[in-house]
Amino acid sequence: MILTALVLCPILLGALAWSLPRRTARRAVLVGASLLQVLLAGAAMWRGPAPEWGGALALDPLGKLFLGVTTLLFAAASLYTFGYMALHRHPRKRHYVPVLLFFLGSMTLATLSQHLGLFWVALEATTLSSAPLVYFDRSEKSLEAAWKYLILCSVGIALALAGTFFLALALPAEGPGSLLVADLVAQAPLMSAPWLKVGFLFLLVGYGTKMGLAPMHTWLPDAHAEAPPPVSALLSGALLNCAFLGILRALEVMNAAGLASFVQKPLLAFGFLSMATGTAFLIRQPDYKRLLAYSSVEHMGILAVGVGLGSAQGIFGALLHALNHSLAKGLLFFAAGLIFLVTGTKSAAEVRGLLGRSPLAAALFAAGFFAITGTPPFGLFVSEFTILSAAFSAGHAVLAVLYLALLVAAFTAMGAVVLPMVFGRPGGARGESLSARNSWLLGAPAALLGLASLGLGLWIPRGLMVLLKAGAVLVSGGHP
Amino acid sequence: MSGFAQLLLVTVLLLDVSLAASSRLAVLIRAFALQAAAVAALALVLDGPGNPHAWAVASGTLLLKGLLIPYFLGRASERTHAVKEQEPLVPYGVSLLLAAAGVALSFALASRLPEATQRSGILLGAAAFATMFTGLLILVSRGTALAQVAGYLVLENGIFLFGLSLLRHMPLLVEMGILLDVFAGTFVMGIVVYNIHRTFDHIDVRALTALKEAADREEGMEEGA
Question: Quick one: pLDDT at residue B80?
């Protein structure tokens, strides 16, 4: 019951919001729905509910992790939206809240799906519901971004559907023949290896497109930079993880089939290419929202490298990194929204001396920068270090050095753009100043995410540790 | 496999070739609708008319892909005054040859499919691969937004055709979800295309380049100079 409720509540409340004529009423529904979702998700994780829909909906450790991230980030984003939309002048858009809630419902379905076909349906639904959010500004640029996002991700995901069918083809002729992850893992040793390989490659390219792995990432900077900040935070912090979950599900099957060595090369190749591409476009990036988007490409590369190392330690590091990245990137996009409100520009060169203009925005943005680049004591330092040591212990010394070099390059490149914005000599574009109430409404969700990211660097709660380890065991098929 | 099923598959293959070569949007949309109808009929023929699951899939496909989507695309092309693409990236003659080569390649690929799927014969696999290939070909060779939507739909037709040989693996809920996603996807794409037309007064998506990185643009200027 509770799993079904998790999927249906946001969608039904979205429909309710659609019928409400007043903007404030719709926003109240948004905040209410996101808090209800936090309660429901908390209850579901606490109780460990039985599978529903004939096993197609269930909550396993991976699902718990990504459901938790999605729910918390959405709650933060809905609070932020409340403050942001009141300030930002925008055309009247009745569809914003309903579509946002539908987006939440489809992401939740993706985290709960145990059936690969159902997972596909959920992930395609996330594309369709988030595309109107990208076109929120009604500008020419946002229209171009929405079109690219829609067509590239739809085609990418279509390939993932073909990949899913290829996995089904690999199933032995006798047997239950279902596409539930548990059944696939149980049957994996009997499945046809060539078809498994073809299926995995299609799934990797398909879901990799949606996850923003280079060279299929071209839509990502446009969509993430043109969407309004709370939506960018969700696209980057929640949706990319959902696509990553699709690749993790495929990995569960591949590792159970004993094809672990086959999957490593493509994962490492996409991972390093994404890290390199993301970093290259950080250098002298003129638009600070695009800067954050390219940083997402880089971090998705780190996730692919982490799971591509093949060891449980690498997978553990990647799962922790996914969580850390979501917190830090949420913080950064929220801070970027504040900067836009205060300065009225997206150009990094026109933002100077933020510290004098808006200490709140400056502090949040600087903290986000140190968090996302893995500076200790933030959480990303721990996860990046875990992946680094996994690379050394797997005997990939050359890759480990390359990985470290790319991390340092990303830190330098991003710092060269961010630090002058924060500390430089005041001047440049000027927008409106924020009232105390609005600073509080906008700053609090961002600060909470920042504190969470900081906390994870100092101490990982036992419950989370158990969850991450269970997830790593699940993906690696129990092999150390 | 029955003779009727084979006839339907040959129809799908022939439509692939004509899809790749048609410059007029109306023809493209009509050929897609016919192909979707053939796929719907195949769902019924392959799994026997006694199977309620097959009936549901067939009628859903016919209704959404055979009727509603083509109707919707037709209206979109009327509203955006998009009749025909004058300058495709790949000339239509070359497209035609490529599609024909794709069909030949698909037969070679399908003959290597595992035994389990051959219950429906090599023709089904070949038609599925050829349709996927044609969809991708249309996607990369056309610049009009609506033609690209049609390409996506043809690609999806091919994947769906492939899925038909696996009907027993898929719960009805998932099959319906896939159909609904494709329908909703076309709907959203249609709205975006309409907005592109309203904003730019054309729907040539190759001309949308405002978001390219600054470095790319500088290179473009150098080439132009």
Answer: 85
